[in-house]
Amino acid sequence: MSRLDLAARTAALENAAHEGDGRLAPELLASARAVADRARERGGLSADHTVVALAGATGSGKSSVFNAVAGADIAVPGVRRPTTSHALAAYWGQGAGPLLDWLDVPRRHEMSGPVPSGDATGLVLLDLPDHDSVVVDHRLRAEALVARADLLVWVVDPQKYADAALHEGFLKPLAGRADVVVVVLNQIDRLKAGEARAMLTDLERLVAADGLEGARVLGLSATTGQGMDDLRALLTKAARRREAATARLVADERAAASALVEACGSQPPARAGERARAALLQSLEDAAGVPTVVEAVRAAARRDARAATGWPLTRWIGRLRRDPLRRLGLRDTERRAPRGREDLVRTSLPAPAPAVRSAAASGVRQYVQKVTDGVSDAWALAARARAQRGIDDLPDALDRAVASTRLEAGRRPLWWRAVNVLQWTLIAAVGAGLAWLAVLFLFSYLRLPAPPTPVWTVPAPSGQGTDVVFPGAPPGPSDGLGVDPFQIPWPTLLVLGGLLLGVLVALVSRVLAAVGARRRAAAARRRLRASVAEVADRLVRLPVGEELAALGRCRAAATIAAS
Ligand SMILES: Nc1nc2c(ncn2[C@@H]2O[C@H](COP(=O)(O)OP(=O)(O)OP(=O)(O)O)[C@@H](O)[C@H]2O)c(=O)[nH]1
Ligand SMILES: [Mg+2]
């Protein structure tokens, strides 16, 4: 007897069948539910009665054994086969009515005497039609009662005890339920003692091969009464323990639950999901056009930086080139949707090429394959079906994810503004220098004395010990000759210096802009990855995960019911 009580086992089996819905074979689930229903129904009926069914091929002697056990000629054994077409019940003890109704046996005989052997109170003995009958109705009636009886007594005769119809059709499906199956070799009065022993040994072997090792096998003669005491004792024991009903149901539930456990397959390795996720994300990022967008962010950031920090007089050239981010419809300014309708925002990314699309689909399929490794085909199929729904929604969801990801920096970097101010200051210096030179030119043109123009003396090269060379200063040590200090008038200095510095600052800014653009692209990639991961989780990982979780629950419940 198992430690788990029948009610808990029934609940576990029902639970497993519920989790397996839509995932495992319908016939398997139906038979598990039928067993659970039977357990509930039988559990609500007389616990005092043990239902013993006599089943077997026609002519094996079921009706004869029935009469012998009852001690009365209730059933009519016949010479013409098959004889018994409707089940017949003999019952001992009060309150068997509802149970017989549930069994659907209208022909019933209340027995007044003591229960066949001794002190047990309730027993329902059923004489069934032949199980392998040529008459279909007989077979169906017999099968229904074989399913509902608490204890099954298979009556076989010396001619047909090894029949495939019995072993393949009836005993093998009862595998694992040895404690509720008794196999009786009837008509042993027709055999010599040695023959009977050999036949019983052979029958034991066959029964064990059917998966019923440990099932009791008895030799019997309904005619002479040989072995009848053993059978009666066995029935009494079963009835007295009042456990046959529970034992039968437990055995049936165990078998149904084991079939579910097997159908579930093994649990996939715990870390398989994490390993498969990276590959899935990679394929979805490609499908979503993340590399294209990241490159556009980089190019756009560089373009913006140049527009802000380039040499003011040539900045416009950069603007002639199209804004790569705008081309994809991904400029923040372009992505404003009416309030609450952010779902309307789309990118202008080219629709993923069929190749990329199918790469994403195969990425999803590979993911499912990896995470369902070892899972039964039926369940893997269910997971794949869930993922397939995700695949259909992926292109749109990915596009939306990209469209809603922040790609640009919130505000313009400070150094852009600083450089901009510097650049315009330098341009202003150039302008001032030019104006000054123009005034000087005018003076000279009009032959007027030139106004005093300050000059800037180029500092001596460092290492010479002096920064400023005055006229008439001692000659430098390098060549021993007097070196005229180089003097530049301020207006010229303003023009040339302004131009030179402006270009220099623009060049340095270019380098900084490239570095900044790379950083921004990296940040955008991180955010895009997070968005794609969210889509992958929502459309693929969670649904597939739910399937696997259901598998885990189904398996766990079935394992409990099978324990
Ligand atoms: N010698 C001998 N004959 C038996 C024994 N049991 C039954 N018979 C005979 O075998 C024949 C068939 O017996 P039944 O009891 O009608 O067999 P059944 O299994 O009920 O047959 P169906 O109702 O057709 O399924 C009858 O003629 C019985 O007299 C036995 O132990 N020894
Ligand atoms: Mg009969």
Automatic annotation (TrEMBL):
<dbReference type="InterPro" id="IPR027417">
    <property type="entry name" value="P-loop_NTPase"/>
</dbReference>
<dbReference type="InterPro" id="IPR005662">
    <property type="entry name" value="GTPase_Era-like"/>
</dbReference>
<dbReference type="InterPro" id="IPR006073">
    <property type="entry name" value="GTP-bd"/>
</dbReference>
<protein>
    <submittedName>
        <fullName>50S ribosome-binding GTPase</fullName>
    </submittedName>
</protein>
<feature type="transmembrane region" description="Helical">
    <location>
        <begin position="493"/>
        <end position="517"/>
    </location>
</feature>
<feature type="domain" description="G">
    <location>
        <begin position="52"/>
        <end position="168"/>
    </location>
</feature>
<feature type="transmembrane region" description="Helical">
    <location>
        <begin position="421"/>
        <end position="446"/>
    </location>
</feature>
<keyword id="KW-0472">Membrane</keyword>
<dbReference type="Pfam" id="PF01926">
    <property type="entry name" value="MMR_HSR1"/>
</dbReference>
<keyword id="KW-1133">Transmembrane helix</keyword>
<keyword id="KW-0812">Transmembrane</keyword>
